[in-house]
């Protein structure tokens, strides 16, 4: 497995779930990791739990000026940026007939515009050394759709297109861009789902179970590492065979 000694990573949405598991995996591999979250105190607390190689800062990814400031600060402090894992996102369901303007705008602002803000800021830093790797957090819902999640599905499908387009544009600068599309993962995002619903998903999944945040983090770690040096523009399903 790749060593990340001397490398610097930013993980947005790194205070919980897949984002935090990814930050932990990168720290364990030797990286210096900056995790972000809307609540700076929580980000600092979660980073402290990972040890001295991690730090936490407040960031609302929908604020493009704040995004630029955070990435400039990372570049100034560490002199480089090797990895971006864009994990910040929101999940709020809603039937088509009940969708509000605020629901639509808020989901797209965070999941799509917020992610693009981070890709743009990270790429500007990575271009200086003509190397870097970016992974976006998509979803199986963006690949197959789901009733009651039209806006969320649209936002995650947009990230698949973002990864492919950015890969084509940034490849000549030595920057790779990929996405992962997790299936149903045991995080707090599914805490409100009934046991019956989750059992049905397990039956539909080839491996017969839900995934863990650590399993997704391991795939992200692979994608940003040297073993995946010729992989870009891909959307890699991490869904246990839910989409086959």
Number of separate strands: 7
Largest sheet: 7 strands, parallel
Estimate the global geometry from the Cα principal axes.
globular
How much beta, percentage-wise?
A: 15-25%
Distance between the termini: 28 Å
Return residue spans where pLDDT drops below 50 for at least 5 consecutive residues: none
What fold name goes in the CATH topology slot? Rossmann fold
DSSP helix fraction: 40-55%
Total of helices: 8
Mean pLDDT: 96
Could you characterize the architecture of this molecule?
The chain is an alpha/beta fold and 244 residues long. The chain has one domain: 3-Layer(aba) Sandwich (Rossmann fold). It is 45% helix and 16% strand. A seven-stranded parallel β-sheet has the order 3-2-1-4-5-6-7, sandwiched between helices. β4, α4 (101-126) and β5 (132-137) form a beta-alpha-beta unit. The two termini are 28 Å apart.
List the helices and strands and how they pair.
Elements: E1 8-12, H1 17-28, E2 32-37, H2 40-48, E3 54-58, H3 64-78, E4 83-86, H4 101-126, E5 132-137, H5 140-144, H6 150-170, E6 175-182, H7 195-204, H8 213-224, E7 235-238
Parallel strand pairs: 1-2, 1-4, 2-3, 4-5, 5-6, 6-7
Helix pairs in contact: 1-8, 3-4, 4-6
């Amino acid at each position: 497995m790749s060593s990340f000694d001397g490398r610097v990573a930013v993980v947005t949405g790194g205070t919980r779930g897949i984002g935090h598991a990814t930050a932990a995996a990168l720290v364990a591999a030797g990286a210096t990791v900056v995790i972000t979250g809307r609540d700076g105190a929580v980000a600092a607390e979660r980073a402290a739990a990972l040890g001295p190689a991690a730090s936490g800062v407040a960031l609302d990814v929908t604020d493009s000026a704040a995004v630029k400031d955070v990435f400039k600060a990372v570049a100034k402090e560490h002199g480089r940026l090797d990895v971006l894992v864009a994990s910040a996102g929101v999940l709020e369901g809603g039937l088509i007939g009940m969708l509000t303007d605020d629901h639509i705008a808020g989901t797209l602002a965070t999941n799509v515009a917020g992610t693009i803000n981070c890709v743009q800021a990270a790429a500007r830093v990575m271009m200086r050394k003509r190397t870097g790797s970016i992974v976006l957090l998509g979803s199986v819902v963006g690949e197959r759709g789901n009733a009651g999640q039209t806006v969320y599905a649209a936002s995650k499908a947009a990230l698949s297109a973002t990864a492919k387009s950015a890969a084509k544009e940034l490849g000549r600068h030595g920057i790779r861009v990929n996405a992962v599309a997790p299936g149903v993962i045991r995080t707090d995002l599914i805490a409100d789902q009934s046991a019956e619903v989750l059992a049905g998903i397990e039956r539909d999944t080839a491996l017969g179970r839900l995934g863990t945040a650590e399993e997704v983090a391991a795939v992200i770690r692979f994608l940003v590492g040297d073993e995946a040096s010729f992989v870009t523009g891909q959307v890699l399903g991490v869904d246990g065979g839910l989409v086959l």
